[in-house]
């Protein structure tokens, strides 16, 4: 690893005092401070885009992210045997706990500040007009058709698996959630979200979960990286992470309200955005993904996988239904 490291180090204009290697990453003690040279599997164009976004965020004063350093060739990555490495600033951090209320609220505030800063971002390698932004109304409709196809497919079997029996016993509750979500939005709202993203050139993190943000030793927070960032509707970040948090916290509507407020007090949500957010939270994503995978599979296999996912989902079903009613009530 020392020989590999030296080849990589020589590509950068840095003075290294010592380094430590762990899990394909090099932790460097340099005259420029603590740095991390990490292996990444993302394409070179995405690394360039990530650097463009990161640098513009830093220039705007958003410092809750690591700086990416250019090599001697002015590229944001080093290479060794066709493998790419990114050199960035490094801080010792602790991953947030999805069960810790204060850490969750802090992470929502970091996301809000990131979204507020990540607007009007320019790029030489990406054209926002060529990015396929998610139309949530059309997405809901497609996933509902998947569920109907699955029901029709299962109903025709004379002998049904345990998973298929469980599906027929409880699909109506999830179907009701799908219809409730669809009732909150329409084509106009979905298109407005896409237009706003394109006009404002907004960046979404695209992978904002517990491992995406960490707590520093001084109890401030920082986003780890933007490896998957892209031009898109930022509201998708918020709905995705809130859904994951709710699944870990039994759809605690009080916690959900606190987290949305923590975000909105920094990055205000417009009325249509609130409706869209509530629709995305109500829409049963896990259920819809199971239906999609089952409906598109050619063979009746992976019974245990489907069964396990379904049982995990049923654990918080009643709380999820209650939360949906509360979200609709307080529109």
From TrEMBL:
Name of the protein: Spore coat protein I
Gene Ontology cellular component list: endospore-forming forespore
Signal peptide: none
Organism taxonomic ancestry: Bacteria, Bacillati, Bacillota, Clostridia, Lachnospirales
């Amino acid at each position: 690893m020392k020989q590999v490291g030296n080849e990589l180090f020589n590509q950068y204009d840095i003075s290294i005092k010592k380094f430590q290697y762990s899990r394909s990453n090099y932790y460097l003690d340099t005259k420029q401070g603590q740095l991390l040279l990490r292996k990444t599997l993302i394409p070179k164009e995405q690394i360039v885009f990530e650097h463009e976004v990161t640098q513009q965020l830093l220039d705007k004063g958003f410092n809750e992210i690591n700086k990416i350093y250019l090599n001697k060739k002015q590229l944001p990555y080093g290479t060794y045997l066709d493998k790419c490495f990114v050199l960035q600033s490094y801080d010792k951090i602790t991953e947030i706990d999805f069960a810790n209320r204060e850490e969750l609220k802090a992470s929502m505030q970091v996301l809000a500040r990131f979204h507020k800063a990540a607007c009007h971002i320019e790029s030489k390698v990406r054209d926002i007009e060529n990015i396929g932004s998610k139309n949530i109304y059309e997405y809901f409709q497609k996933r509902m058709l998947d569920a109907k196809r699955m029901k029709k497919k299962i109903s025709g079997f004379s002998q049904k698996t345990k998973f298929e029996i469980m599906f027929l016993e409880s699909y109506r509750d999830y179907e009701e959630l799908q219809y409730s979500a669809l009732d909150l939005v329409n084509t106009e709202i979905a298109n407005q979200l896409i237009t706003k993203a394109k006009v404002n050139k907004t960046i979404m993190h695209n992978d904002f979960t517990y491992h995406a943000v960490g707590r520093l030793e001084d109890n401030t927070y920082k986003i780890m990286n933007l490896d998957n960032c892209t031009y898109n509707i930022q509201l998708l970040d918020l709905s995705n992470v809130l859904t994951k948090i709710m699944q870990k916290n039994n759809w605690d509507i009080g916690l959900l309200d606190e987290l949305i407020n923590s975000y909105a007090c920094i990055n205000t949500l417009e009325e249509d955005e609130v409706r869209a957010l509530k629709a995305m939270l109500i829409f049963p994503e896990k259920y819809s993904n199971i239906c999609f995978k089952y409906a598109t599979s050619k063979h009746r296999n992976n019974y245990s996988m489907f069964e396990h996912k379904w049982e995990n989902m049923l654990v918080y079903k009643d709380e999820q239904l209650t939360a949906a009613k509360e979200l609709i009530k307080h529109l």
